[in-house]
Amino acid sequence: MSPIYAAVRSVFKKGAREWEKDTCINFHEDRSGTIAAKDKIRVFVQSGCWSFVGKIGGSQDLSLGRGCESIGTAAHEIGHALGLYHTMSRHDRDKYITVNLNNVKADWLDQFTKQTPETNENYGITYDYGSIMHYGGTSASFNKKPTMVPFDTVHQETLGSPFVSFYDLLVLNNHYNCFDKCKKDPRAARCENGGVPHPRDCSKCLCPGGYSGRLCNERPSGCGDVLKATKEYTELSKTIGNPNMKEKEDFEICYYWIESPPNTQIEVMIDTINGNFAVDGCKYFGVEIKSQKDQKATGYRFCAYEDAEVTLLSSSNRVPIMIYSREGQTDVKLQYRYGDVHFE
Fold first, then answer.
1. Could you say which of 18, 69, 77, 288 is catalytic?
2. Interval 23-46 mean pLDDT
3. Is 175 annotated as a binding residue?
4. Phi and psi dihedrals of 133, rounded to 5?
5. Is 86 labelled as part of a ligand binding site?
6. What is the pLDDT, as a whole number, of residue 343?
7. Strands 196-198 vs 49-51: parallel, antiparallel or unpaired
8. Is the per-residue pLDDT at 344 higher than 50?
9. Are 108 and 154 in contact (CB under 8 A)?
10. Residue 134, marked binder
11. Residue 14 in 3-state DSSP?
12. Which end of the chain has fewer CB atoms within 10 angstroms, the N or the C?
């Protein structure tokens, strides 16, 4: 097997796993051509990264060409095959983003076509800037100017995420009726922090990013810590990787919780971010700060030198933070403190 085909097979399987582990959808590899299923996805290497949207019947193609060999790209194309349109094509997008079609390459305009309520069912789930199905803010631009600007402009770098988001999972779980069994299960978990009973085990929870444990009331295990804010600035400094770390398929991730006393508000200020590739969606490295009220949504992502001194105020007395990288050395320094109501 050639290196390119081996890489595509690896990232496709990992991309499929990103959907499979948190839905009721199962993928079965048919290497020998002996599986009798009538409807299949044929993964191959052609020019570009593309897939049909939803099942078209029979064997349908999904291309992961050169430059598409990442788990995020594979998960994006698999999302299409499972029925997801681009997030910026949602019928309600105009409530959340401004699409600058004047900056879009002519042969890419169809990727920004807005759907209708009849063609685009979102099951009441809100727009997520960090959806795996969302293009980056300058994607398909012919003049390097933004093709999309979120109404919440601090989310500009969040557009184009390399991760399947919690809201992505909710949409597909609803689409395939994965939650139905948990609605009838007396053992269904009573989840916290926006979590929902897990479609593969109703007694535990499917958790939003930054949360873990059976009831979504724990910090994800591994690298990271629970930090207690004071009224004076404290520094959070973290280095992931090293200058010689080549691009990897999987991210190294550290999860932190910054907490403060009840009825207080946390301020988080970016001191410095240093890494190799500051691109739309922070696809190679970055920091996500979940200071927003809706903890089910993706937090604010940052990965550029210019983000220094960006300051966020929390909507509660806890702020989950994710620092991640899959290439080179990433250095992040944050300052945090709390106040009783608001900082001036």
1. 77
2. 87
3. no
4. -95, 5
5. yes
6. 43
7. unpaired
8. no
9. no
10. no
11. helix
12. C
